Amino acid sequence: MKKVVCMFLIVFMTVFSVIPAYAMRGENLKEQSIIAPLYTYIYAIVPGLSIDSSGRSTSFGAASTYSSSHTITLNVELQKLSGNSWIRIKDWSVSGPGVPGVETINDYYVTRGTYRVCVTVKVYDASGRLLETQSEYSATKTY
Fold first, then answer.
1. Is CB count within 10 Å lower at the N or C end of the chain?
2. Which pTM value belongs to this model?
3. The domain spanning residue 105 has which CATH number?
4. Which top-rank group of organisms is this from (predicted)?
């Protein structure tokens, strides 16, 4: 009788001590876990590129900081893939206050090829001292 009770308790404990595990499909996991870089002074950097059917590219860049006392210099560079390297096609710059931030949108006609935008942000304090420099790239677009 003692063996039966022990076996019953072992089976009972095994069945009811199972820890539930939850799984997520791969595509849902990608949506749920976005990894974004953290910077010291920069709040956000947003690069963007679109190319329409006529070859007109629209290059976008935006950035902001955590402090309104900081100044941002934003450089948006349109780049074309040439072999294994990226070459500069055109660039635009804008400066302004860290809060609310700065942005620029520029059009430029391109020839056939693969393109991307590189947005480089420099943050300066109130006395003009460079605090941080970071770059982000857009997704590539082929025309």
1. N
2. 0.73
3. 2.60.40.10
4. Bacteria
